[in-house]
Design goal:
4 helices, 2 strands, DUF3566 domain-containing protein, membrane, transmembrane, DUF3566_TM, transmembrane helix
Length: about 130
């Protein structure tokens, strides 16, 4: 069975001063994957909260919420006001809830992917990675 790494190793058989190493990734540490996915999820949560804040501020500054309120006024007769539901504390609370849910989901997905990879290594033999020093 010939792999891409084998073909690359044969092509670069010329005399060079760089050394090539082919390694096989046969195990992903579960807790390392959980920690890394948690840190990625924290970064995503921060981006989520900041972007929700910025979008709300742009909508508030451009008076788009008031214009949409006027449209709903014509349909509901003034009984329903969007501006009463879209204040900054309520929007930020919603953003915090979404960020926390994303934090949990991304962390769990990182753990699941690590577990699935460790199970699939038993079938496929792992991921072959080639390294070279220049």
């Amino acid at each position: 069975m010939s792999t891409v790494a084998d073909k690359l190793a044969k092509k670069s058989s010329s005399k060079t001063s760089s050394k090539q190493v082919r390694l096989r990734l046969v195990y992903v540490d579960f807790w390392s994957a959980v920690k890394l996915s948690f840190l990625a999820a924290v970064a995503l949560a921060i981006v989520t909260i900041v972007s929700i804040f910025l979008i709300f501020m742009v909508l508030q500054t451009t008076d788009l919420i008031a214009r949409v309120d006027e449209i709903f006024d014509s349909f509901t007769g003034g009984e329903f006001k969007i501006a009463s539901f879209l204040s900054l504390p309520q929007v930020m609370a919603f953003g915090a809830i979404v960020a926390i849910l994303n934090l949990i989901v991304v962390t769990v997905l990182g753990a699941v992917v690590a577990g699935i990879y460790n199970l699939m290594v038993k079938v496929t033999g792992g991921l072959l990675v080639g390294f070279t020093s220049n």
